[in-house]
Amino acid sequence: MAEKMILLGNEAIARGAYEAGVKVSAAYPGTPSTEISEAIAKYKEVYAEWSPNEKVAAEVAIGASMAGVRSMCSMKHVGVNVAADPLFTAAYAGVGGGMVVVAADDPGMYSSQNEQDSRMVARSAMIPVLEPSDSSEAKEFMKFAFDLSEKYDTPVMVRSTTRLSHSQGIVELEERTEKEPFPYERNTEKYVMMPANAIKRHLVVEQRMKNLAADADTLPLNRAEYRDLSVGFITSGIPYQYVREAMPKASVLKLGMVHPLPRKLIEEFAAKVERLYIFEELEPVIEEQVKSWGILKAVGKELFTVQGEYSANMIRQRVPECGKRGQPEVSGETARGRQGDSTALLAPAKVPARPPILCPGCPHRSVYSVLNRLKLHAAGDIGCYTLGAVPPLSVVDTTICMGSSISTLHGMEKARGKEYIRNWVAVIGDSTFMHTGINSLMNMVYNQSCGTVVILDNSTTGMTGHQDHAATGRTLMGEVVPAINITKLCRSLGIEHVYEISAFDLEGLEEAFRRETHRDAVSVIITKAPCVLLKGVSFPDKCVPISEKCKKCGACLRPGCPALTKNEDGTVSIDETMCNGCGLCMKLCRFDAIEVQPR
Fold first, then answer.
1. b or e along 272-287 (b: 16 or more beta carbons within 10 Å of the residue's beta carbon)?
2. Contact, 557 vs 566, CB < 8 A?
3. Dist CA 69 CA 66 (whole Å)
4. What is the pLDDT of residues 534-579, one digit of tens each?
5. Which residues contact 17 (CB under 8 A, 6 or more apart)?
6. What is the pLDDT of residues 71-113, one digit of tens each?
7. Fewer Cβ atoms within 10 Å of its own Cβ: the N or the C terminal residue of the chain?
């Protein structure tokens, strides 16, 4: 009997790639996709890497495919934007060995700055999209995707969402199928995308999509489940599970390939059911195509929002046939409507707010406390340090995307001049700097800007769970390698004023910020202290309040460390189970009412 395991959707995706014989995997960590690469790195037959960014990861996978082996790259939805340049052209070039792009969308924006739909990117790039509904399908769809890629000479996207990536299911494990590399044959018309060749390849791509669309009707990934014909749903991915939960007797057309769509299968299904609903999260990708074929009885976004994550309760509340069948009305959630329509589908749950906060002892808090005291504004970036935007620190004023902080500061300087940015800095993490911050810093130097860039170096990619990068000295596969020296790298760009300083040196930080923000040149301040959650980081000390010395001024509370609590009498308590002895509160106290003691 085959072995079975309970796997996360992401682990199942990795397992499917492994069983399919993938040889090369490249990625940049981004929630909800991160665990795919962490899981696949455990298979010794697969070379797996953290690339500097998603564009590079896609190019690594493309190169491996051209060399004749099966390859993959994984990223969250905003990473697809970064990878779009090579991905769109890879669709023209086609593949050697099968190539799969895993895109993990984030309906509900649990850890993202926007809520885009990767199906729309894939449709524009003209590559097919598969969408599994559970962990078992995630594994099988990955295997099918590699076969599909090689059969149709195209990259294939497997789309996941947060709910699938981070939910668990039973997966049947199978043996790995080793694939012999395809022999390399020089073919410049296929692989060299100069205009004359690309024009010809565009014709190939269009014909390929027509062939895929014609074959979609017979693909085993798409299936019609006929039950009660009075109501039917067209759906895919995780929303399929909600349909089956809320209306188990309804007929369902479950789409495993969501681009291109199986037109004949859809038309047959629509003709057999009396009432037709299209239940898809985010954009009306399926709905618009179905209605363009004249199937106007289909009901989709008239009832279901384009914003946020779906649920079985949404069906119970909005689909009349569900109520008629005696389904219970379930309260406890709200879905938002299109373009600010805040119509409540269900009553909001009454639960305590739990806003994210920086960890006790986080070095970012120390840096931000100084910026706050100096009343400096920060152009922010993507990472834990984005939390510097909220009270009590309230330092970060802008956050757009990976690497944007430096470019944003540069744009401000070019728009308003040097004096305008005297009270501004750009803040960026070490991993994000390696991702795309380097390019932005080069641009500041090249275009003769001025401004202060603060690189918050905590020796990891903290936001996504402490992955390594090119400046940490360790690869995804655990190899110890030379670490990129960020200080030397910045100086190599021609920046004269580059400084390293401890993130907890408050006096040094204040002096550096005052000096550098008034310099008529580009300057870089690298604040160094490891993330408090890194393995191997120990905390031998703790901070202890001395109540009799406390003047109840609240200075120690201003950075918002969760280990500190204000007592009813105005004094302060420190939870020693949370405190790691960083000493920030002690340094802020002018009355020696806090001291650091050994644990």
1. ebebbbbbbbbebbbb
2. yes
3. 7
4. 887 888 889 999 999 999 999 999 999 999 999 999 999 999 899 9
5. 25, 40, 46, 70, 72, 100, 142, 146
6. 999 999 999 999 999 999 999 999 999 999 999 999 988 888 8
7. N
